[in-house]
Design a protein that fits this description.
The protein is mostly beta strands. The chain is built from two helices and 28 strands.
C-alpha cells in the first residue's frame, strides 16, 4: 500500500523519468516555490505565471499553485477556455477561464493526492475522460470518467507493482479506440471505450512516447528508450522498426526523448534526442538534421510540439527555456526563459489559437556534491 504523499511523488518521478523529463527525488518540502501554470498569449515571446487557486469558502489554509508539479494538460475540444492539468501528487486541476484561475477537480473515486501523469479527452464526447495514474498498491492504472470528471472508475491496472501507464491516446476518427503504453514496453488497444484491452505489441525496451497522426489515425509512432522509433500504418496491428533508417545519421543515438507529427502531413515527423533534432518528410525513410540553436548534448529535450493551427510553428523545451520557430524548423529559432528555475515537462498549444501556449514544470535535478 502507498501510505503517504512521498510515495506518490516517488512513483510520479519514476514515471516522468521514462518520459525523458528531469525530476529529482525529493519531497514536497524541498520543492522550489516557483511553480504554477505558465501561459503565453503571444506565441512564446512572453510568459506569465498563473497561481490563483479557487478555494472553498470555509478553507482554513490559504494556498496557491506555487508548489504544484504539473505533468500534463488536456484542452477541452469544444471550449479551449476549459483545460485540465494533471499533477505529480495533487490530483487533477481544471480552469474555465483559460488558465487565469484553477480549482481541484478530482471527483468521486479520484484522490486529492493522486498522481495524474496524462489526461485524454474524447473529442466526440467530452464526457469521456481518461487519466493515467497509480493505484494505492503501486500498480499503474487508467481511470475513466463518463460524466466530465464528476465520478471515476478504474478500467485498467498493470499486472505488477512499479509498472506504470505513461501514455493515453484516443483515435480522433473513431474515439471508441483508445491506446495506452506502459513502462515495460507494452502497447494496448481498447476498441470499446476502455471496457476491455488487447495487447498490440511488446517491445524489448521501455516506451517513452506514443503518438497518433492527427491527419491519418491509422498511422502510429512509438519511441523506445533504447530501441529507437517504431511505426504502424494499420492502427497497431503490425509494427516496423525505423532504427536502421535513423542510424544512417551520424549524430543520432537511440535515446529519443520526444517526438511530434505534423498535423497537416502524416509523413512529416520530428524527433528530439540528446544530440539534437531530426526531421523526416517521407514517413521515416529518410532523415535530415534540423539546425537548432542549442549545442549538441547540452541537455535533453523534454517537450516537442507542433501547432495544430499552424504546422510551421514548432516548439521544443530544454530545462526552463522554450525554443520556437514559425517556418517548419528550417531556421529563425527564438528562445525565451520562463520565469522559473524549474524544468518544463508539459507544453500545450491552444488548437484554436496558436499564440496561446501553456507550460507545466517540475523541480530541477538535484545538484551532485563535488566533494
Amino acid at each position: 500500500m502507498i501510505k503517504n504523499k512521498k510515495q506518490f511523488i516517488f512513483l510520479a518521478i519514476a514515471a516522468f523519468l521514462f518520459f525523458g523529463a528531469a525530476f529529482p527525488g525529493c519531497s514536497s518540502s524541498a520543492v522550489p516555490k516557483d511553480a504554477g501554470v505558465f501561459k503565453s498569449i503571444d506565441g512564446g515571446l512572453t510568459w506569465e505565471r498563473k497561481l490563483q487557486l479557487i478555494l472553498p469558502a470555509d478553507a482554513k489554509v490559504k494556498t496557491d499553485l506555487s508548489e504544484i508539479n504539473f505533468l500534463s494538460f488536456a484542452i477541452n475540444p469544444n471550449d479551449s477556455n476549459i483545460i485540465y492539468a494533471g499533477s505529480a501528487a495533487n490530483g487533477l486541476y481544471q480552469t474555465k477561464d483559460a488558465g487565469e484561475s484553477w480549482d481541484s477537480y478530482n471527483g468521486t473515486g479520484l484522490s486529492l493526492q493522486a498522481a495524474v501523469y496524462y489526461v485524454a479527452i474524447d473529442h466526440k464526447n467530452i464526457k469521456n475522460m481518461y487519466l493515467a495514474g497509480v493505484s494505492d498498491y503501486g500498480k499503474g492504472r487508467i481511470m475513466k470518467s463518463e460524466d466530465e470528471g464528476l465520478t471515476w472508475q478504474e478500467v485498467y491496472v498493470t499486472l505488477t507493482a512499479g509498472e506504470l501507464v505513461n501514455r493515453i491516446e484516443i483515435d480522433s476518427y473513431d474515439t471508441s479506440i483508445v491506446y495506452i503504453t506502459t513502462t515495460k514496453g507494452q502497447i494496448f488497444q481498447s476498441a470499446n471505450y476502455g471496457r476491455s484491452w488487447t495487447v498490440l505489441n511488446r517491445l524489448t525496451a521501455i516506451i517513452n512516447n506514443f503518438v497518433i497522426s492527427p491527419k491519418d489515425t491509422r498511422i502510429l509512432y512509438a519511441t523506445s528508450v533504447s530501441e529507437g522509433l517504431f511505426k504502424s500504418v494499420n492502427k497497431g496491428n503490425d509494427w516496423e522498426s525505423l532504427k536502421d533508417n535513423l542510424t544512417k545519421i551520424p549524430a543520432y543515438n537511440n535515446a529519443i526523448n520526444v517526438i511530434a507529427v505534423d498535423p497537416a502531413d502524416p509523413n512529416i515527423i520530428y524527433i528530439g534526442f540528446l544530440n539534437g533534432m531530426l526531421k523526416s518528410s517521407d514517413g521515416g525513410i529518410k532523415w535530415s538534421t534540423v539546425n537548432i540553436i542549442t549545442p549538441s548534448a547540452i541537455l535533453p529535450m523534454n517537450s516537442l510540439v507542433v501547432s495544430q493551427k499552424d504546422s510551421k510553428s514548432i516548439y521544443y523545451t530544454i530545462d526552463s527555456q522554450v525554443y520556437f520557430t514559425n517556418n517548419g524548423a528550417e531556421s529563425n529559432w527564438l528562445v525565451r526563459n520562463l520565469p522559473t528555475i524549474r524544468v518544463i515537462t508539459a507544453l500545450t498549444i491552444d488548437p484554436n489559437n496558436s499564440k496561446v501556449i501553456y507550460a507545466g514544470t517540475v523541480p530541477p535535478p538535484a545538484k551532485k556534491k563535488m566533494f
